[in-house]
């Protein structure tokens, strides 16, 4: 009856290996590409401009701070993912260590984070796609280009491209993770090539004088920008959602999590340094295509179109991986009885949670089409930072509760590293706006209402509900 009841770790691992579950088809390369696919997108192609205005050339330090917070948390994720290779990411880990109520709340949090991330990125995808069409002299009717009220003084009905890309990728995800991974790998190669080409082309146009003053807004500016560009690193945690579909999770998951994060952190810092070295940071105010602007400023207009294409491909993989992560969290919560069982049913032909995939695809596709998402990045950030804090706490708790448990990967420096993750993540949360905290609080209260009104009595751990 306790809201802090926990699941048995050994039973969880055994259940994940039982026949009839998710197909085990992913290797370390797939996981690294999945992480890069989720991370390199809106952050590098859009948020770098806003970050530059907030921190100046010290945006590079902002990326380092955000990367450190993620790195500490990634070590904790890697230990859990390799030890408990079960779908559901931090939701599952919390259920085994911190109790059902904590697991439910963080699962509820992840559903919002991943879902709104797909909606937000699909809206960004729509903008770049329409820009690319205009380059060929093509365009959509204005009423189909944005959500109602998104364009002041302009009548719009809904964002058609955002809805279409969500439905197309939902179709792909429903067909199978192997097929989705293949497409993701191809797109990741293309978009990383575009980023590397930007580095090569842009480096020769850097003017060191543009880096002075380096920190025009002081430490506060660096930290505020770090809280914003933290959004750029969201995604590596989605790799852990694939745990039940990995061939050798004890080895491959730590490689995928840490490898993708390190590669993306290096790319971000280098791109930020080159951007602010080409263009004075003040000129990024109100710009939503900062990488293209830097090339235009340098007179490399021929390459700007490639950057737009890279941005479209980058956002496509972000939507794909984040939608995948959301469906696996939903699947895990449903399997535990906290949500309707239909959401954890596996399609016999495709081996995927077909109904759950289409449920979230349609819901958040409609949100992308009809809702202007002005403060979405901050709302996603606060949910992710809260999840990172909890996984860090969970590592410390599990070390105390189960010191005998075999850990294929051990987070170094416990409890210091998890504590540093908590400190860094909470520090970034304090720099988010009051509106973001209020919206996050409302979502959590709604989650509590659903838990006590529905989920608690239907959980498999509730007396009388456990399968015979």
CATH class equals Mainly Alpha
Class from secondary-structure proportions: mainly alpha
Task: Give the biggest sheet.
Answer: none
Q: Mean of the pLDDT scores?
A: 86
**Can you tell me the CATH topology?**
Amino acid/polyamine transporter I
The overall strand count is 0
Number of domains: 1
- CATH architectural name: Up-down Bundle
Q: In angstroms, what is the radius of gyration?
A: 22 Å
Q: CATH homologous superfamily?
A: Amino acid/polyamine transporter I
Helix and strand run: HHHHHHHHHHHHHHHH
Cα distance spanning the termini = 19 Å
Structure description:
Helices cover 67% and strands 0% of the residues. It is mostly helical. It has one domain: Amino acid/polyamine transporter I (Up-down Bundle). The radius of gyration is 22 Å and the shape is globular. The model has no long low-confidence stretch (mean pLDDT 86).
């Amino acid at each position: 009856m306790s809201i802090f009841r926990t699941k048995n770790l050994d039973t969880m691992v055994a259940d994940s290996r039982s026949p009839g579950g998710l197909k085990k088809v992913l290797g370390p390369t797939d996981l690294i590409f999945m992480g890069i696919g989720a991370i390199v997108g809106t952050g590098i192609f859009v948020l770098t401009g806003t970050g530059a205005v907030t921190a100046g050339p010290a945006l590079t330090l902002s990326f380092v701070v955000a990367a450190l917070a993620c790195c500490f948390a990634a070590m904790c994720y890697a230990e859990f993912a390799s030890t408990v290779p079960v779908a559901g990411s931090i939701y599952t880990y919390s259920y085994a260590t911190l109790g059902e109520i904590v697991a439910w709340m963080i699962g509820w949090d992840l559903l919002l984070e991943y879902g709104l991330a797909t909606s937000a990125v699909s809206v960004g995808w729509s903008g770049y796609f329409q820009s690319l069409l205009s380059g060929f002299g093509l365009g959509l009717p204005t009423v189909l280009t944005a959500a109602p009220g998104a364009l002041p003084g302009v009548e719009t009905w809904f964002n058609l491209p955002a809805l279409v890309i969500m439905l197309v990728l939902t179709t792909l995800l429903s067909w199978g993770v192997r097929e989705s991974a293949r497409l993701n790998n191809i797109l990741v190669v293309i978009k990383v090539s575009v980023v590397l080409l930007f580095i090569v082309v842009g480096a020769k146009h850097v003017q060191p004088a543009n880096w002075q003053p380096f920190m025009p807004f002081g430490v506060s500016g660096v930290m505020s920008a770090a809280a914003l560009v933290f959004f750029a690193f969201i995604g590596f945690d989605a790799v852990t959602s694939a745990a039940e579909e990995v061939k050798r999770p004890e080895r491959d998951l730590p490689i995928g999590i840490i490898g993708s994060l390190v590669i993306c952190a290096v790319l971000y810092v280098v791109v930020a340094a080159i951007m602010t070295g080409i263009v004075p940071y003040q000129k990024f105010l109100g710009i939503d295509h900062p990488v293209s602007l830097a090339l235009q400023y340098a007179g490399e207009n021929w390459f700007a179109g490639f950057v737009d294409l890279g941005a479209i491909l980058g956002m496509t993989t972000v939507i794909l991986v984040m939608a995948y992560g959301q469906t696996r969290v939903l699947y895990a919560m449903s399997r535990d009885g906290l949500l309707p069982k239909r959401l954890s049913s596996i399609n016999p032909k495709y081996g995927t949670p077909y109904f759950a995939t289409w449920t979230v695809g349609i819901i958040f596709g409609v949100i992308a089409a009809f809702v202007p998402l002005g403060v979405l990045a901050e709302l996603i950030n606060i949910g992710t930072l809260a999840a990172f804090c909890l996984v860090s706490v969970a590592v410390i708790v599990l070390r105390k509760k189960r010191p005998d448990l075999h850990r294929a990967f051990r987070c170094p420096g416990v409890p210091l590293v998890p504590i540093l993750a908590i400190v860094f993540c909470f520090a970034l949360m304090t720099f988010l706006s009051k509106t973001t905290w209020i919206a996050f609080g409302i979502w959590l209260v709604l989650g509590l209402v659903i838990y006590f009104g529905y989920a608690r009595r239907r959980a498999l751990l509730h007396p009388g509900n456990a399968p015979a």
